[in-house]
Design a protein that fits this description.
single chain; 237 residues; mainly alpha; Four Helix Bundle (Hemerythrin (Met), subunit A); 6 helices; rod-shaped
């Protein structure tokens, strides 16, 4: 806004010469300028826009969930390939396992960041919704709005709470895989693999639990996205 104002003043000076301000003209100019800024900044705080940002953040979180589900499978496949190697160089499958685990770790971090962003955008949306409900004069309509806000807020809270529970299972799983990577790196031999086989078996068992929780979260995210979507034909299951 200030940039465009400055450009207008420069053009005005070139066409009309120096501007001579009087007290009334200067006051009027700044009132108009302040009002314009207040209007444009206020538009960004409306309920529909806050809702769209919340929905977009949920959709981005869903994409990260899919990445994590696929990557856990890739990482376990790479780990099991080391254990199955009957002959040849163990370093190549180990190197692939390290690469896949690095991706899993990075994907987990990204998912956590998106979860935080989703929670923040959701809070902003519901805070704005509550604030704008107070502007509704019709008491019955305002009451219905509060009821609906409570329903949607509870639906949204389910995924944020479930996301925290998933992380409490996911992070120890990644930590165990990292320990296996370190142990294998220092003893990448047939004997070393035999020693670690019980831990590799346990990692595979834990992976089933992690993937089940990730999928449960993904399904819940889909339900919440449907509940908040503006598209006709979608509803809460």
């Amino acid at each position: 806004m200030l940039k465009y104002t400055d450009e207008w003043l420069q053009k005005y000076k070139q066409q009309k010469g120096p501007i001579i301000w009087n007290a009334l003209g200067l006051a009027t100019f700044f009132i108009i300028l302040w009002g314009s800024q207040a209007f444009f900044s206020g538009c960004a705080t409306t309920g529909p826009e806050k809702k769209q940002k919340a929905v977009s953040s949920i959709e981005e979180f869903r994409k990260e969930l899919s990445k994590n589900l696929n990557q856990v499978t890739e990482t376990l496949t790479a780990l099991n390939q080391i254990a199955k190697t009957g002959e040849g160089d163990l370093y190549k499958p180990y190197k692939n396992f390290v690469k896949q685990l690095d991706r899993t770790t990075e994907n987990s971090r990204n998912m956590s960041k998106h979860a935080d962003d989703m929670a923040m955008k959701g809070k902003q949306y519901f805070d704005t919704w509550e604030k704008e409900l107070s502007n509704i004069i019709n008491s019955e309509l305002r009451s219905k709005g509060k009821e609906r806000r409570g329903e949607v807020s509870n639906t949204f809270s389910r995924i944020t709470n479930l996301a925290q529970k998933v992380q409490s299972t996911y992070q120890p799983f990644i930590s165990d895989l990292t320990d296996i990577k370190t142990a294998l790196g220092n003893d990448l031999t047939t004997t070393g693999i035999v020693t670690l086989k019980p831990y590799i078996t346990k990692a595979n068992e834990n992976a089933k639990t992690v993937m089940a929780k990730l999928q449960e979260l993904a399904d819940e995210v889909d339900r919440v996205t449907n509940a908040l979507s503006s598209r006709v034909g979608l509803s809460i299951e």
